[in-house]
Amino acid sequence: MKATKLHLTLAILICAISQSAMAFDVKGSFTRTLTVSGTPDIEITTGSGDIRIHSGNTTSVVVSARISANDTWFGGGLSAEEKVKKIEANPPITQSGSFIRIGRIDDRDLRNNVSISYDVTVPNTSRVRTETGSGDQNVQDVQGPLKASSGSGTISASKIGSEVRVSTGSGDINLDDVKGSVYASAGSGTIKAGGIAGSFYADTGSGDVTLSQTAPGHVSAKTGSGHVVLKNVKGGVEARTGSGGVEAQGEAKSDWDIHTGSGDVILRLPSQAAFNVDARSSSGNVTVNHPLTIQGTMKKNRVQGKVGAGGPALNVETGSGEIRIE
Questions:
Q1: pLDDT lower than 70: segments of the chain
Q2: Distance, CA of 192 to CA of 189 (rounded, Å)
């Protein structure tokens, strides 16, 4: 009985310690306005917290930040309240001409158990680089280029005037209205891109990849498991999925190379298109709804031939599933 009471007492004590480990939550904030001219370079980093960027007037950068700090039972050094006051008094912002750095805190003790979220208004002409350990990011209406990365969090960007490079360890990527090439990578998460005026390179460990293209450029879309949907493509295509279907619609200006381990493949090309085709399925029918000159022996699960005068190669393969070229 005594042993049982001792174990119960220890359990209660451990629970109390655990609950007190994050006993204090201190909030704070700051706002700063910096004068700029020309084409500013903006760099924003935060260990944990969200980042939001949008355009404003052409001569200033306005930084608004929300701070959250915690005291722990095992802590030492500065208290959460002291950390918040120090950051409010001396925000992590530096400026050298047109280059502005936001969020860098070299003092390890000061940044431990501290989360800062940033809302930043920048000139439309800005070039932007952002990074967060965990937190979402949203960037709107800048000329760019834009480079954004996150350990875990969703990254969204719209109305970007040039190249975009985004990556997240776990989280979705959402892009819209990009006037340049796109490079998107996710450890796990969906990648959605619309209004992309340029080349598109996307890779995710698991999740769907969708694209709508508005200007010519090579397309590469890869996912470990998920569907790939490509619309209005005007160029070459490389599409890969371990398990999932592939749909692609557009003009084959150069070769299309499509592969799925398991899933249907549907390709839609203009009626006047001319191309060479080699489409094969381990288990499933292959259908080509274009006037076709057969090369070799035609089988229900493999078609080789030439449409029209021939042209770019369509190499299509699925482990299990049907193939339709319309």
A1: 1-24, 73-76, 296-297
A2: 10
CA distance 118 to 128: 14
Distance CA 95, CA 87 (A): 17
- Token pair for residue 167? 């990556």
Residues 6+ apart with CB under 8 A from 311: 252, 273, 274, 275, 276
**HSE on the CB side for 262, CA within 13 Å?**
2
Per-residue model confidence (pLDDT) at position 24:
56
Of residues 209, 181, 174, the one with CA closest to residue 196 = 181
231-261 exposure pattern, b = at least 16 Cβ within 10 A, e = fewer? eebebbbbbbbbbbbbbbbbebbebbebbbb
User: Looking up tokens 């404003």, which residue turns up?
Assistant: 56
Backbone angles phi, psi at 274, to 5 degrees: -125, 130
Q: Which amino acid is at 186?
A: A
In contact, 252 and 275? CB cutoff 8 Å: yes
User: Which residues share a beta bridge with 215?
Assistant: 197
Dump pLDDT digits (tens) for 121-167.
999 999 999 999 999 999 999 999 999 999 999 999 999 999 999 99
Beta strand 93-96 with 99-102 is antiparallel
- 66-80 b/e (C-beta count within 10 Å ≥ 16 → b): ebbbbbeeebeebeb
Closest CA to 144 of 165, 126, 123, 158: 126
- Give per-residue pLDDT as tens, 74-100: 556 889 999 999 999 999 999 999 999
Cα–Cα distance list, 112 to 62, 107, 186 (Å): 25, 9, 27
